[in-house]
Design goal:
This protein is of the alpha/beta class. It has six helices and five strands, in the order βαβαβαβαβαα. The mean pLDDT is about 95.
Length: about 170
């Protein structure tokens, strides 16, 4: 099996339903990844260790799923030069707005790419786009995905037009 290129960390097992769509996408396109639980608050040493060793371990992109204060993506980004993509989760009193703002408003010098609330599929696609700079096979899979999306949209449009003509 090919060595994982994407490290995916979630703050707790309650984040599994959020990351599921992104995992499905990565499996569909055959991109190897590693998934683990690593809380920035409950096990900060593990989180920092992942960040510091990620490049040496062969990872090229990190996806971090976090809710509420959403420190996980920022902590990772502060300890690595790899790209980090944050996925804010819905829930809590503010339904994910707090997590979104926490991830997107990082201090100067510690950028974290951010996708929409619960948008793990977009995080997986963005990770693949980053990898496609280096890997032609991933680039081709993304091109096919775009062609398939266009075809699906055209089919839906044709179905709508047929409906309107009936």
């Amino acid at each position: 099996m090919e060595k994982p290129k994407i490290l995916i960390l979630i703050g707790s097992d309650s984040d599994l339903p959020v990351i599921d769509d992104g995992l499905k996408f990565l499996k569909e396109v055959g991109i190897p990844f590693k998934l683990d639980i690593s809380s920035a608050h409950r096990h900060p040493e593990k989180t920092v260790s992942y960040a510091k060793k990620a490049r040496r371990d062969g990872f090229e992109v990190i996806i971090a799923v976090a809710g509420m204060a959403a420190h996980l993506p920022g902590v990772l980004a502060s300890h690595t030069t790899l790209p980090v993509i944050g996925v804010p989760t819905s829930g809590g009193t503010l339904n994910g707005i707090d997590a979104l703002l926490s991830i997107v408003q990082m201090p100067k010098g510690i950028p974290v790419a951010t996708v929409g609330i619960d948008a793990s599929r977009n995080a997986a696609i963005l990770a693949c786009k980053i990898l496609s700079i280096k890997y032609d096979g991933i680039r081709e899979k993304l091109k096919k995905m775009k062609i398939d999306m266009k075809k699906s949209s055209e089919e839906k449009s044709a179905k709508l037009n047929k409906y309107l003509q009936d």
